[in-house]
Amino acid sequence: MRVLGINAIFHDPAAALIVDGQVVAAAEEERFSRRKHGKRPVPFAAWELPDLAAAWCLHEAGLRPGDLDAVAYSFDPGLGRDAATLGLDDPSDHLRLDYARRAPQFLAAALPGLDPDQVRFVPHHVAHAASAGLSVPEDNAVLVLDGRGEVASHLGGVYRDGRLEVLRSQELPHSLGLLYEDLTRHLGFLHSSDEYKVMALASYGTPRFLGLLRDLVRTTGDGGFTVERVDWDALAKARASDGQLTDAHADLAASVQVRLEEVMLDLARWTYDAAGGPKTLTMAGGTALNCVANARIAAEGPFDRVWVQPAAGDSGTALGAALAICEDRVEPFTTAALGRGWSDGELEAELRRAALPYTRPESIAAEAARVLAGNGIVAWYQGRSEYGPRALGHRSLLAHPGDRHTQTRMNDVKGREQFRPIAPMVRAERFAEIFDGVYPSPYMLFVHRVKTEWKDRIPAVTHVDGTARVQTVHAETEPAVAALLAEFERLTGLPVVVNTSLNTAGRPMVDTPREAMELFGSAPVDLLALGPFAVHRATAFGGGR
Ligand SMILES: [Fe+2]
Questions:
Q1: How far is the CA of 399 from the centre of ligand 1 (A)?
Q2: Which of 101, 233, 331, 500 has the fewest CB within 10 Å, making it most exposed?
Q3: Mind telling me the catalytic residues?
Q4: Is residue 47 within 8 Å of residue 106, measured between CB atoms?
């Protein structure tokens, strides 16, 4: 069965393709259009489809639109209700429903040859749930939390033999995702985009408003929750986007963050009991990108294993919608590297076209490790790009973890706020010696504690609260990055490298080789490792390291 999944309703438009139970391709529209998050989540943008990502998915599989058996759209307008009756202040929301109803015609126009009758609507949270629950082989409890779907912001359920039973959902306006978005806006960041900055800011604060938030945000004892209106201004002054961040802002962020963790933990426990105590919890929805909360659920919750979909935000519903209606048995999820890739020949042709001086070293991993050991910055472009918001060693910017100044330097290169932490990747076999917490962690969806004796050895990746958001690198699934880490360890004694996404401020992650070369040309990066090819700054532009 050939199923194309589409997310287009709110933000992070994306497409995914499953052929005979294999996830062949999955990618976000922003990587093609170069518009961060694809579009802003306003109702009249709902008609904008992931045209480029969808066309690429088909191309990747050598299919034409007419070859598809079904298209799964991750929102069901038939479930929608008037925004006012949902308690939402969104007078244009009906446009969203109108556009969603017309999605079959819009899709047929974007993908000539597609029969609009092939398009099936999948409830938004069922799509999120499937992206997680059908990605692991075993039965599992599933918890979905986001800003909103059609009428809800949450789903608690259980997958048995690949079938979803919904145990509970929480209707709007109560929404943990919208609460966090409101806070993000209040703190002067871009909502539906910068929530992870609030999470980072929270670790600098004291949760002194926690008592009040416990009154305003409550679980109901039956798997649901309520969120009362928060008078943000009474707690900390609204901040303009260029305004100063104060202790009050950090304290507010800390308070909401801790309350979110408590509520998520409660919901996870309820779902465990209601589901009959399965060993595994899977999670999706934008709120499941909160890796501090995820780590708490893993540590304090009743489950043996917590698995979070790496594309937990709405982009992942493209894959989830396709999984939800796919009738074939689907292989478990083993890699987020589902986006575009280029052959060595294509990469070399691009380098020639750009007239960049390059070499093909015996081992690009060893070459990169040498530059990193000398405290250089490496743009690491290998294989297929990642589906979801994290760079996982395919479109990554790498640096030395042992230098205190690395964080400032990386945040400067990327034009990021200085309070934001940078994360480590670690050789799987050395993880337990250095970190405490969820293992394996191949998708960076949990925070871990850095063991005391290691804090001074890897200061660049040790956050102010003593944590790090670790990616464990396993040689079976990521041989190139594993080889780089092994060589870096041989040179420095550290089995850890700093890993951030390969992009500069406000721009989507690099996807094409040309974008990688542009970034290399415009940022102080010492080595571009483009597939097996090496471009050194000193050779390309003179000077540098
Ligand atoms: Fe969502």
A1: 33
A2: 233
A3: 11
A4: yes
Give the other-Cβ count within 10 Å of 413's Cβ. 20
**Nearest partner of 365 among 339, 405, 342, 398, judged by Cα:** 398
Q: What is the amino acid identity at position 287?
A: T
CA-nearest of 47, 51, 50 to 77 is 47
Nearest-CA neighbor of 42 among 85, 95, 5, 98? Answer: 95
The pLDDT of residue 544 is: 46
If DSSP codes are grouped into helix, strand and coil, which group holds residue 99?
Answer: helix
- Which residues make Cβ contacts (< 8 Å) with residue 318, sequence separation at least 6? 5, 6, 7, 14, 15, 16, 26, 50, 74
Q: Residue 461 and residue 480: Cα distance in Å, rounded?
A: 21
CA of 500 to the centre of ligand 1 (A): 25
| CA 313 – ligand 1 centroid, Å | 6
Q: Which residues are bridge partners to 15 per DSSP?
A: 6, 27
H helical segments located in 221-363: 232-235, 247-274, 291-300, 316-325, 344-353
Torsion of CA 200, 225, 296, 312, to 10 degrees: -60
Instruction: Look up residue 418 and give its two tokens.
Output: 């200085």
Which residues are placed with Cβ below 5 angstroms of ligand 1, an ion?
146, 314
Calpha distance 390→75 (Å, rounded): 24
Digit-coded pLDDT (tens) for 98-115: 999 999 999 999 999 999
Q: 290's torsion region: left (phi>0), alpha (psi -120 to 50) or beta?
A: beta
Q: How far apart are the CA of 371 and the centre of ligand 1, in A?
A: 40
Contact 214, 230 (CB under 8 A): no
pLDDT at 42: 80
Residues of the chain with pLDDT > 70: what percent? 99
Q: Specify the DSSP class assigned to residue 118.
A: G
Query: Tens of pLDDT along 398-412?
Result: 999 999 898 888 888
Measured CA to CA, the distance from residue 334 to residue 27 in angstroms comes to 16
Residue located via tokens 């579009």: 39
Let me know: does 441 contact 384? Beta carbons within 8 Å.
no
| Tokens describing residue 468 | 């790090």
Cα 373 to ligand 1 centre (Å): 41
Section 127-154 average pLDDT: 97
Q: What is the 3-state secondary structure (H, E, C) of 413-478?
A: HHCCCCCCCCEEEEEHHHHHHHEECCCCCCCCCCCEEECHHHHCCCHHHCCCCCEECCEEECCCCC
Helix, strand or coil for residue 4? Answer: strand
Q: Contact, 534 vs 382, CB < 8 A?
A: no
